[in-house]
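Sat 14:20. Reprocessing the chain from the morning session after the first attempt stalled halfway. Input below, unchanged.
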Amino acid sequence: MTNANNNAGGAGVGVWIGRVLTGLSAAFLLFSGGIKLAAHPSVAETMGSLGWPTRYSLAIGVLEVSIAVLYLIPRTALLGLVLMTGLLGGAMATHVRVGSPLFSHILFGLYMGLFAWAGLWLREPRLRALLPFRR
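Finished this time. Tokens:
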């Protein structure tokens, strides 16, 4: 019987899927934070439509980029993931408050959170030991 994590490349399919999910989750946060740091014109419009003062966009951008970096560093990935979960929950609450569409806006934070958690769970054996799936 072979172990999927002991193939010739050193990492199994699950680990690679985890890396891709991690990359997508981090890329989303880096993009979102980056456009806020760059003060892209769409940020002011979006912040206004969500009821947030534009003056918070820089702080939120710094927070998003910082969380993404924490999530990408193996030693701090779990801390980054927990912080990302809180950030996404706050985004979901904001969308609920303004009456955004359910599947495209409100639940987007849930989708991203599931991607991020699955990504770390697939690539981190200590997290799998802490949160095992049972058959």
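Confidence is low (pLDDT under 50) at residues 1-8.
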